Amino acid sequence: VSDDAAPLVLVADDDEDILGLVSFRLERSGYAVAAAKDGEEALRLARELSPALVVLDVMMPRLDGYEVTRRLRDDEATRRIPVILLTARAQEADVARGFESGADDYLRKPFSPQELAARVQAVLGRR
Amino acid sequence: MNQPTTPRDRTAGLTARIAVGSAVLALLVGTTFVLVLLAIASLRDAEDAIARSGKVNAAANQLERLSVDLETGERGYVITGDARFLQPYDEASEQIPRATVAFLRLIRDPGLRASAERIAADLTTYRRAWVDRVVERARSDREAAAAMVATGRGKNRLDALRDEFDDFRARNADVAARRQAAADDAGRRAVLLAVLGLAVSALVVLLYALYLRRTVSRPVTTVRAATEEMAAGNLGVRVPPGGVGEVAALGRAFNTMADSLERDQAEIARRTAELEAVLNSTLDGIGMTGADGELIFTNAQLARVWDELGMESEGSIWDRIARLAQLTPRPEYYVRLFAERAGDPEFELTEEFELPSFGRSFIGFTAPVRSPSGTALGRIFVLRETTAEREADRLKEEFVATVSHELRTPLTSMIGYLELVLQGEVGDLDPQQERFLGIVQRNADRLTTLVGDLLFVAQVNANALRIDRRPVDLAELAASAVDSARAAAAEKELALTLEAEPVATEADPSRVAQLLDNLISNAIKFTPYGGTVRVGIGRDGDNAVLKVSDSGIGIPVHEQERLFQRFFRTESARAREIPGTGLGLAICRAIAEAHGGTIEADSVEGHGTTFRVLLPVVVAAEAK
To answer: Across the interface, do B409 and A88 touch by the CB < 8 Å criterion?
Structure first.
């Protein structure tokens, strides 16, 4: 359903259901979506595809969301890609940690897919 | 301490013994002196008598000479008729009465006296009855007088008288000799007495000294030596029984004191050992400095931790603490703190710190140590390892995070897909489907809230609740909390009001909002239709006051104190089937306390409840 003009959003979550949910919602909202099942894959795809935005789950096997964010920020090629973190943790400290690692926004699970779409739009709109 | 009972001395006391000894000695010396005096007096008497016997002899000689003069004068006159020859006679006649009286007066000896008086009588008789008569006759008739003289009777008489004198002088010499002997005797006796008395006195003094030495001096010396030995640390020393009276009592008292001291010392040593054992058995490292700041005690645990941290055990305790501070993530803070406060005798500190290079954490505590009467004894230093607790906290926190993830991931899919379906993203729903899915969604939301509450409580339990203070206006937070509760209030036709003055402070906005949400939704739940719920924000001194009052069913007094316990639900809440987990107020309390505040409930059953939260107002310097 994606056309060439649609911005590409890379979504990474180890839970396939959530991956499907987010992909569905974002595609419906008019984005092209690439999906990754773990942090390493997310990092690789981000470098390969240069997406317009990355949505990262924090708790992922191999590389967690914070680490992926940090590595994206460390790499000149991916430095400018906005990141939205998704987390099941509820701590304020986690939020702070997310922003420290360089995330642009932060959403707690469970979240409303519509809310996520709005955030994606907002972050992309800021650019 | 009970007074040791010593048997009362049956023998006389020391004072009495010394008194008796001195009295005996004094008596002895006194007696000797008196006896010597008496001997000297009798010697002097004897010497007087000897001197007198010389005078008696002289008096006798004079009297004899006068008697001869009488006769010489008489005969010369009779023969010559010349009155000049009468001169010796006249002079003798004149002197004889006086000389006789003087002679008699000199004589004391009764034997001599009889003889002297006979001499005096014979002399008088010779003079009157013969010499005077011859001279008288010669004055008138010299021939007749010469015839009288020629008879030789006069001469015979005189010769007899002179024999008497001889005899008298012999007697007198005899008496004088006896006197001399008596005087010699008395002198010898006096010397003998004096020598004997002195010798006996010296002997008595010697014996007395020996006695005192044996009964007083030696035991006292023994006690003194024992005292010195005890002072040098030998508490086992005892003195043998000896001496008399008070001295013996002194020895016994010394032994009693030594027993008591030894017992006390043993008791002190035992208690000290016990205390040290206790201090060495505890988990905490404990050190103590004396009043002068010198380290006087270190328990085994502190020494072990010190060793494990590779710290040198040199320098003052503050030097060591300074070295320890170098291992913490913020040494400058501690260096500054100790520079400012270590000299303060009242300085008290409880501080938890981490040693990242060892992966260990500790609570350090120091405070002055005082005796029960308040005298400063020194300072205690305690080092308690909290590594295990911090590790437990970390594990709990990790567990909370894992559970949180595991519960929320499926909820995310449920709620997310439900939303897609309800929004008609996958086709239209008939009203029944929509209603049923709405119920599913509502319960999924409830489950989400429940999971959130449970995880919150678990965090509090794991000491993992952190608040993120930022400048907030409590009135604004309250306004938005009230706004989001309006719908629920309207459903029950409740009057929901807010009375708020702006209170700027630093607080965790989401936590305070959560607290207000909990209190307001509670109030709405427990207030019947048409009631009122009032929210108030204000200040009371240094505290911000958050108040939520309702006209609800109230809480019985016996339930009020358990209100803030986790999972506690009032009987009426359960009876009325008002939904809830019993976590809301526990969360409120945790949030209030995490902000350094308090929460309390004031309720009258049947009339309503007021929850009052006090949060200390915190104003950051840069916020001004």
So the answer is: yes
